[in-house]
Amino acid sequence: MKRHAVREIALKALFACDLGKTEPSTILEMLWNEEGISQGPRDFSKYLVEGVIINLDALDNMLKKHTIEWELDRMAAVDRNILRLALFEMFYSDEVPRAVAFNEAIELGKTFGGVESSRFINGVLGKISKIELKEDERG
User: Fold this and answer.
1) How far, in Å, are 25, 86, 90 from residue 95 at the CA level?
2) Model pLDDT for residues 70-105, shown as the tens digit of each residue
3) Burial letters for 47-85: b for 16+ Cβ neighbours within 10 Å, e otherwise?
4) Spatial CA neighbour of 31 closest among 21, 19, 46, 20
5) CA quadruple 38, 43, 46, 48: dihedral, nearest 10
6) pLDDT range class, residue 23, cuts 50, 70, 90
7) Domain chopping of the chain, boundaries
8) What CATH class is the domain 3-138?
9) Number of other CB atoms surrounding residue 31 within 10 Å
10) Whether residue 134 has pLDDT greater than 70
């Protein structure tokens, strides 16, 4: 199973947790069983979901800081969770290069979001990555 498909599972789990306040492990187990997922992809999807949840406050603060015109609760839930997932991979994980996480988020937006989702995600991640990378370089 390709990592893109695993990210789709992680996104579905994050989305369900965000809207339904369901335990991530319950949602993941259900998705794994539905899709017949093997152990390697299970581990990666669990890593992504747990990483987002553990770092949720920091991820949401980053979004709030850089999306002044958009309140988090006014964003489409799928866009919000795609952004959280991408930011986790870009700034809290060494699993993939930042550019890959960025591009994967845009593709998830095209698949699961609305008509403007991929443009919105691209704009937000572009703005955040430029500013946050500069802050990283300053130390």
Assistant:
1) 21, 12, 9
2) 789 889 999 999 999 999 999 999 988 999 999 999
3) ebbebbeebeeebeebbeebbeebeeeebbebbbbbbbb
4) 46
5) -120
6) confident
7) 3-138
8) mainly alpha
9) 19
10) no
